[in-house]
Amino acid sequence: MKSLYTSLVAVAASLSIQAQIVNITDADLVGGTTYNWTNNNTYVVDGLVFVEEGAVLNIQEGTVIKFTEQQAGSASALVICRGARINAIGTPDAPIIFTAQIDDVNNPTDLGPTDVQLWGGLILLGKATTEKNAAFEVAIEGIDSSEPRGLYGAPGNNPANFDDNDNSGELKYVSIRHTGFGLTSGSELQGLTLGGVGRGTKLSFVDIYASSDDGIEIFGGTVDIKYFSVAFAEDDSYDFDEVWKGNGQFLFSIQRDDVADAGWEYDGSTPDDAPNYSAGKIFNFTHIGAGPGANAANPIGLLIRAGGTVTAGNGIVAETKGKGIEIQDKNGNSTTDSYSRFQSGLTSILNNVFYNIGSNTTPDGSSTGVIRVTSNADDATAGVFATHFAATNTIANPEFVSISRAQNAQLDPRPSLTGAAYTTALAAYPSEPFFTPVSYKGAFSNAANQCYIAKWTTLAKNGHLASGLDWNGLDAGINEYNNVLNQLSVFPNPSNGIVNLAYDSPKPVNVEIINLQGQVVRSVNGLASGIRTETIAVSDLAKGLYIVRFSNGENAFSQKLLVD
């Protein structure tokens, strides 16, 4: 039996290595100052805390920031004001966590998908283009409009002061959990809220888990988002609004079966007919809805409305109770609604896969179809949309490994090599360097070690993901830690007698095609450097699975190739 003295020594030793608690209130942070939050502390944010103009908040990898629960009419949240910056840069092994005070981050069964509204959320504000009701400077939703630190857009409400290259800092390997405390009806805080954030801001590898409102809402701006995961938002997973003109790629979302709204709510502007409207580009998304038999009211996959336009390509929408996609048409009474802009070619729905949308299997705009415009649309309008939809999109099974919304280690959203994500035609990627051409549809490749939500997200930590999934910083040839040889893609995959190799390398590239016995069956050396697409004939190779190995003398990456 241990003595009391021995027990006390053990307790003292354990306490000495625990993180110190640092309480943060709004009075603790002022403008023009740099703050460094480190992972030997746990920071507890009490109430609305503003990182004011000119301030910089640096957060070390592995740091935990917790937020107190407030009473009705107030919330704890962290606001990065216009002119301030946050640099929260974690790693896959040491993500930065924003969560509720009661969350035991070391206990994977502590909180789950239904634990929401435990604090407000994280808010970033900037100076990039936005517009709402003819105003160019707007108060962010969820904060009292009389609070000047909650404004975003053009300072002084002067559009000459917009800065689309504005930099609010960087979020990378950041996990945001159990959010969405509403101040009043219609004025809620999301997991992550962005207002007028510029393209100088870098947002990648962001995890948002269990929000009572949207997972992420973007109000205007030009910011790009890449490698996002939104799980179990009670409203929309992604909400784009007020003249957002950014890019998105590799976006995952999954909904609960008891409460959910749209996978995307994509709005153009307020009012709907404003001359400036959202016009983003989004590729490689996977949305797993609430399920065809869900108890949730009638969640839809992609909702495009309020005059918004979008280019949406190479995505997967599955398991929705409502329509797979809906575009708002005001029954011929508008020339500036989302449907009229779709008709004029401003919106493109390109080469996406839709599967298990209710019990429907046909791409028509009727009450039994996968798509529609809105309930006010006439049959002719619905038919035009259905014709376009059927010409480029597919209703087919992507063959996910497994779907689960419980904490039972059964969620594996990777598509099969033989499913529609790999076997249907891809849309061409936009020319912007932001986009990474890949050989599959959806947010994930088939490779088990290239699942970017593995290891660091709440889905991984809270027991949702299946075993065997890993993230080694390499997806579609992107080396997250040393991006010397990147933007690698092998397509079509399965091949049809040829294979295209797309890459971006500062040095000449060597390529080897290797069979499963380890034999090099094809090699091409000295492919030109730069952003290139090279074609290699593979019609003489036996059917089967191969490995394509790229190297440029500094880095080497491999991808699978199915020769059919």
Distance between the ends: 68 Å
Shape: globular
Secondary-structure content class = mainly beta
Q: What is the share of helical residues?
A: under 10%
Summarize the structure in words.
By secondary structure, the protein is mainly beta. It folds into 3 domains: 21-235, no CATH class; 268-443, no CATH class; 484-563, Immunoglobulin-like (Sandwich). 7% of the residues lie in helices and 38% in strands. It contains 5 helices and 42 strands. It has a 17-stranded parallel beta sheet that branches. Strands 4-7-10-16-18-20-22-24-27-30 form a 10-stranded parallel beta sheet. Strand 38 and strand 39 form a beta hairpin. The protein is globular and about 70 Å long. It starts with a helix and ends with a strand. Mean pLDDT is 86; it is low at 1-17 and 474-486.
Name the descriptors.
564 residues; mainly beta; Immunoglobulin-like; 3 domains; 17-stranded parallel β-sheet; ten-stranded parallel β-sheet; 5 helices; 42 strands; 7% helix; globular
Brief description of this entry?
The protein has 564 residues and is mostly beta strands. The protein folds into three domains: 21-235, no CATH class; 268-443, no CATH class; 484-563, Immunoglobulin-like (Sandwich). The protein is globular, with a radius of gyration of 24 Å.
